[in-house]
Structure formats: structure tokens, C-alpha cells
Design goal:
The protein is mainly alpha-helical. The chain is built from 18 helices and four strands. The strands form two sheets. A two-stranded antiparallel ribbon has the order 1-2. A hairpin with a 6-residue loop joins strand 1 and strand 2. Helix 4 packs parallel to helix 6 and helix 12 crosses helix 15. It is globular. The termini are far apart. The structure holds zinc ion. Belongs to the protein prenyltransferase subunit beta family. Its EC number is 2.5.1.58. Catalyzes the transfer of a farnesyl moiety from farnesyl diphosphate to a cysteine at the fourth position from the C-terminus of several proteins. The beta subunit is responsible for peptide-binding.
Length: about 500
């Protein structure tokens, strides 16, 4: 008979041995994983400025938080052979549904952003492959309560109409879809309200008496386009002219041109600082006015813009910053990353000779001529962006959701725009047929062709759904609402 006391002790020795073997295996596995990660994402940048400032300290802190996650050392994550964690779809879906339900008291400060929560969560769920039609009734009722008789939507019942909240409501209605949702919108009042915001210099105020900036121009262009509004101005518009020579889109492209800064990026208003989100607004605006292959080079200095956009991507982090000398932030995966499909469409069109111009390119009215190089396969490191998103932007706790950077809480805003950036990085976009349309209310839309990008380092099951490069909702949702209103006679 064996000593009963020995049984447990020998079992425990065996289990120690087992766990040591397992630990060793994990270490070997982790080392192998490291081999699959390019050095640029696991090491400090080779060139460093020796001047220490508050900004350089913040940058070092951020790199310090990102490096272990990028190097395959996150205990909570399960890495693939390229050292990338899986997209935690189920947890993110749960997080987004929770953000569409009743929110805790601390969210009271975000009350006027309720339309944004609708758009962010519905768009993010859609990108994750979820069917959001079950929210149709709730979105319709909420949108009705936010619409003003004077046109547009406020952030809540009785709140002033604002361009940003109106944009968000229109996109949310397009996402849930259907005639009942589209019919919520009072298009005649919307047309009058947008006319009253249109300024003689081509731009739009964001609300009556409010600031005029490029967000206003982008949101207005999207709303006019999706709702197929007539372009003539209501007589109460500050931009109205007796001879009828001015309409809702007159001078928009010139306004955008005035927002390109000395750095090459785009600012919110003329003579301000270049910012990633405004770059997306600028390109989105122009892409609605004409094919990017024609209009971008007419109004922007593209080489300088591309240089500025590319400089927003950092190593080792792989993500984008929004401004010069700022930190990486997940939301710029869309605001900056989302510029590249539009630029790519522009360069592809020029390379194929469809733009109708000579090879010589006049740098946006500067008088300086140069020749645009052929479009490279990709204008930014897709791998870097995917690594930042999947390694650093996923909240690996039970809570789920996506975030700005390690150490920050996940939220609906970042979940939406991080996923939109992932979608841009995972797909190749091109405008299938250049349109000769001069106005955004042309009878036929150009069709964006989209395919998953071939060289992928992530698992196929982690592919997210593509979204329209300008409207930031799926292409079929944009088409459905446009077709519906295009078929209507008048308002
Ligand atoms: Zn952000």
C-alpha cells in the first residue's frame, strides 16, 4: 500500500512539472510570435530628439504603454502567427448594444450628443456584421422628438438644430433604413434651414449664428446629397443673389481650398491649424462635388497633403495622430486613415488618364508644376494601423469596446471610428466609373468598387464590413436613401 500522504504530494509534483512545461511552451510560443512581428513595431524609434519636454515625455509614456501590447506580451490577448490578437467581436457588439440602452447618470453631459450615440453605435454594429433593423422604431421615435419645425435636428427634444446632430440623425435613419425612417425627415424645412446657414464665401455655419467651418461644409454636402435636396437657395439665405447665380454648393470647393495650410494638411477654417478630422471633411466634401481624380487636383496640393497625412502615422505605435506633434489616437484611424481610399481613387484615376488633364499637374493654383508619381499600391502602412487597432485599441476586459489608446476607457465614438479605420485598412477601394456629373444631385451615382486587401496579416474571420468612403455607412444604405428621395417629385 502506498502512503496515502504521498499520493497528493506526488500529484502536486507532477502538476508543478506540467505547469513548468506549459510555461516553457508559452515562452517559446511568445518568442516565435515575436519573430513574426517586424522590428519597427517592437523597438523604439532609431532617431530621437534629445530635447526633453512635456510633449516628448507624453510621447515616451504612450510608446511605453503600446510596446508590450505590440510585442505580443498582453496576457489577456490570444495572438495569431503574425503576433496580432483576434478582433473581439462578441464583446464589442455587447458593449455597443449597451451604449444604445439607458446610460448611467454621468452621461448627462453627453445629452446633446444623443444623435451621435445613435450613429456611432449603429454604424459600428453594422461594420461588425450585426443587423440593426430592430432599432428602426426606436430611432424613428427619437429622431421625431429631435426635429425642429424650422428644419434640422437638435441634440434632443427642444434643442437648437445643429449641423453635426442633423448629420448624425440622417445617417442613423439611413442605417436602420426603410420608407418610414426616411419619411421622418421634413426635407422642405431642411432645405430652408440649410439655405439659412449657407454663407456668401461658400462655407456653412454649423448652427444659426454659430461658427462657420469645414465640418459645416462636409455635413451639409452629405445631407444635401443623401436627401437629394434641390440646390437653389431659399430667399432668406445670406448667400442668396437676385440673379440666382449662387446655390447651396457654390463656392464650397473654393472654401475647402482656403483651408489647406502651409503644412499641407487641412484646417477647420482658413488660416488655422491642420487637423486630421478636417482633412477627411475636406476630401469628403470635394468627392461629393465631382470625381476625386478631377476635383482634388483642381483645389488641393495633393503631394503636400499626402506628405502631411503620411506623417501622421507613427512607429512603433502604427496608429495615426490628428495633428503635428500630438499622440496617436484610435479615432484618427478613420479621420486620417479614411482619407487614403479617396486619395487612392484620385491617383488611380490620374494614372489611368481618365482625369482629362495632362500629366503635368498644377499644384492647386500655386503656379508650380510637377508630375504626380504613379499611385503606389498603398500610401500608408496598413499593417501598422491594423497592429495599433487590434493590439492597442481593444479593451480586453469583460467590458469590450474600442478606445483612443492603452490606458483610456473604450467609448462609442472611438469604437465607431476605430472600426471604420480598420475597414479602410482591410479593403481596397476604387471608383468604378468616373462620373461626368457636375452636381451631387446627378441622376446616377458613381459606384465604388471594394475588395478585401490581398496581403493580410489578420484572420479572415476578423474582416469587418466595408463602409462608403464618404458617407461612412455601407454603400447599399447610402444608395437606398438616395434612390428613395431621387424618385420623389419635389418635396
Ligand atoms: Zn480620439
Amino acid at each position: 500500500m502506498s502512503n496515502p500522504q504521498l499520493v497528493p504530494s506526488s500529484a502536486s509534483a507532477q502538476s508543478d512539472l506540467d505547469s513548468e512545461t506549459v510555461d516553457e511552451e508559452i515562452v517559446i510560443q511568445r518568442k516565435n510570435t515575436l519573430l513574426m512581428i517586424p522590428d519597427i513595431f517592437t523597438q523604439l524609434p532609431p532617431v530621437r530628439d534629445s530635447l526633453a519636454t512635456q510633449t516628448s515625455q507624453l510621447q515616451d509614456d504612450t510608446v511605453g504603454k503600446c510596446l508590450p501590447l505590440l510585442s505580443g506580451e498582453d496576457e489577456l490577448a490570444e495572438y495569431n502567427e503574425h503576433g496580432l490578437p483576434r478582433l473581439d467581436r462578441a464583446r464589442h457588439v455587447k458593449f455597443l448594444h449597451k451604449n444604445l440602452a439607458k446610460l448611467p447618470g454621468r452621461f448627462v453631459a453627453a445629452d446633446s450628443s444623443r444623435p451621435w450615440f445613435l450613429y456611432w453605435c449603429l454604424a459600428a454594429l453594422t461594420m461588425l456584421g450585426e443587423d440593426v433593423s430592430s432599432y428602426q422604431e426606436a430611432v424613428i421615435e427619437t429622431a421625431r422628438s429631435m426635429q425642429n419645425d424650422t428644419g434640422g435636428f437638435g441634440g434632443g427634444n427642444g434643442q437648437l438644430s445643429h449641423m453635426a446632430t442633423t448629420y448624425a440623425v440622417v445617417l442613423a435613419l439611413a442605417l436602420v433604413g426603410g420608407e418610414k425612417a426616411f419619411e421622418v425627415i421634413d426635407r422642405r424645412a431642411m432645405w430652408r434651414w440649410l439655405s439659412s446657414l449657407k454663407q456668401p464665401d461658400g462655407g456653412f455655419q454649423v448652427c444659426l449664428g454659430g461658427e462657420e467651418d469645414i465640418r459645416g461644409a462636409y455635413c451639409a454636402s452629405v445631407i444635401i446629397s443623401l436627401l437629394q435636396l434641390p440646390l437653389n437657395l431659399a430667399p432668406e439665405s445670406p448667400a442668396w443673389t437676385e440673379d440666382g447665380s449662387s446655390d447651396l454648393l457654390t463656392g464650397v470647393a473654393e472654401y475647402v481650398r482656403r483651408c489647406q495650410t502651409f503644412e499641407g494638411g487641412i484646417s477647420g477654417q482658413p488660416n488655422a491649424e491642420a487637423h486630421g478630422a478636417y482633412a477627411f471633411c475636406a476630401l469628403g466634401c470635394l468627392a461629393l462635388l465631382d470625381h476625386p481624380g478631377r476635383i482634388f487636383q483642381r483645389y488641393l496640393d495633393i503631394p503636400r497633403l499626402v506628405a502631411w497625412l503620411s506623417s501622421r502615422q507613427y512607429a512603433p505605435e502604427g496608429g495615426f495622430s490628428g495633428r503635428t506633434n500630438k499622440l496617436v489616437d484610435g479615432c484618427y484611424s478613420h479621420w486620417v486613415g479614411g482619407c487614403f481610399p479617396l486619395i487612392q481613387a484620385c491617383l488611380n484615376n490620374i494614372a489611368s488618364g481618365n482625369d482629362g488633364t495632362e500629366a503635368a499637374y498644377n499644384a492647386a493654383g500655386t503656379g508650380a508644376s510637377c508630375t504626380l508619381p504613379p499611385a503606389p499600391e498603398t500610401l500608408f502602412s496598413r499593417e501598422g494601423l491594423m497592429r495599433y487597432i487590434l493590439c492597442c485599441c481593444q479593451d480586453q476586459s469583460e467590458r469590450g469596446g474600442l478606445r483612443d489608446k492603452p490606458g483610456k476607457m473604450a467609448d462609442a465614438y472611438h469604437s465607431c471610428y476605430v472600426l471604420a479605420g480598420l475597414s479602410s485598412a482591410q479593403h481596397d477601394w476604387d471608383l468604378e466609373e468616373p462620373t461626368a456629373a457636375e452636381e451631387i444631385s446627378a441622376t446616377a451615382d458613381p459606384v465604388w468598387a471594394v475588395l478585401p486587401h490581398l496581403e493580410q496579416i489578420f484572420d479572415r474571420r476578423d474582416l469587418v464590413r466595408p463602409i462608403h468612403p464618404v458617407y461612412a455607412i455601407p454603400q447599399q444604405n447610402a444608395r437606398a436613401i438616395k434612390d428613395y428621395f431621387r424618385a420623389k417629385q419635389g418635396f
